[in-house]
Design goal:
2 domains, alpha/beta, Spore Coat Polysaccharide Biosynthesis Protein SpsA, Chain A, 9-stranded mixed β-sheet
């Protein structure tokens, strides 16, 4: 039986160092019916020339401007024919058999539209990595967390999250998605530019009747913060702005009218806390995020029109309260196994 065609698409922006380090592991992947594409977002560091010279079997696509993560993938994936896309960060090291378990899982259930492998830290390979860990969840107020990561608390991987299960969102660092589903959803929301766009996409997929899964039988190692360093004002701005936009697009109107003011109130507390403790950039990032969200609300608001089914990976409580007030440290303390 013919294997589905898998297109591994690495969106690159000035990531030559990462390509030198990690592209060989992708090329060595044991899955046969694959093609590897480096999609370059107007890099200026010689990335394109490096790939063309050293990896003639890797296809290179080039854009004339930096479209960001969301717009970049939308632009390039219109040019890629495949059954499955794997959206892979350039700072990810993969293992030879990382593709097969995910494709087998997704082929066995037509309802699964997107899936991620287990993401471990490249720096500390016995720990989960911040961006996705072993599958993403969302609380009732829009705060994302993962099986293995709660805010900045990262767990060691002791096999505690090795079950392949439905989750709310799959990380964009190593996102497997059926090509037809990606295009059915019109891809990422390009207004996001970067950050939260994969959560928004997975939310829309679930509302359209699909499932999102994690497949821990596949493992990859992520460096993390390869483009925007953790804690940068730009990253804070994008995360807080895009989170509010995502909630506005996807929440039922009955929840929206009180959850958005409540979230803005919680954001403000966080901003003032960071300002008092000596992080003015964090405060400024949140202030700009709220101003930009208001601009979006007044000029570009687009609500996603679909039913509101029961969502997988949605925690109905408030993880801010559980973590900061009650001291919960791990995913398993919050989401108890049935």
């Amino acid at each position: 039986m013919q294997q589905p065609l898998v297109a591994i698409v690495i969106l690159n922006w000035n990531g030559k160092t990462f390509l030198q380090q990690f592209l060989p592991s992708v090329v060595a992947s044991s899955y046969h019916n694959k093609k590897i594409i480096v999609a370059d977002n107007a890099s200026t560091d010689g990335s394109v020339e490096y790939v063309k010279t050293n990896f003639p079997g890797v296809e290179v696509l080039v854009s004339s401007k930096n479209f960001g993560f969301a717009g970049g993938y939308n632009y390039f994936l219109k040019q890629v024919e495949a059954d499955y896309y794997v959206l892979l960060n350039s700072d990810v090291e993969v293992t030879p058999g990382w593709i097969e378990p995910v494709i087998e899982l997704m082929e066995g259930n037509a309802q699964i539209a997107a899936c991620q492998p287990k993401i471990l830290s490249w720096h500390k390979k016995d720990e989960f990595e911040y961006a996705g860990a072993s599958g993403g969840w969302l609380d009732a107020y829009g705060y994302p967390f993962s099986r293995g990561r709660l805010f900045d608390i990262i767990e060691k991987d002791n096999g505690q999250y090795n079950d392949a299960v439905p989750v709310f969102w799959a990380t964009g660092a190593a996102l497997f998605i059926k090509a037809k589903c990606y295009h059915q959803m019109n891809g990422f929301d390009e207004y996001f530019f970067a950050h939260m766009e994969e959560i928004d996409l997975c939310w829309r997929l679930q509302r359209s009747g699909y499932l999102v899964y994690v497949c821990p039988q596949s493992t990859v190692y992520h460096v993390g913060a390869g483009t925007l360093p953790k804690g940068s004002q730009r990253k804070v701005y994008l995360n807080f702005r895009n989170n509010l936009i995502m909630l506005t697009k996807n929440l039922p109107a009955s929840q929206l009218i009180w959850k958005i003011p409540y979230r803005i109130f919680l954001d403000a507390i966080s901003a003032w806390k960071e300002l008092i403790t000596g992080y003015p950039g964090y405060f400024t990032g949140i202030f700009k995020a709220h101003a930009s969200y208001l601009h979006w609300l007044l000029t570009k608001r687009n609500r996603f029109k679909a039913p509101y089914p029961q969502l997988q990976g949605l925690y109905k409580g408030n993880i801010v309260w559980l973590h900061f007030a009650k001291g919960y440290q791990t995913f398993s303390q919050i989401v108890k196994k049935k």
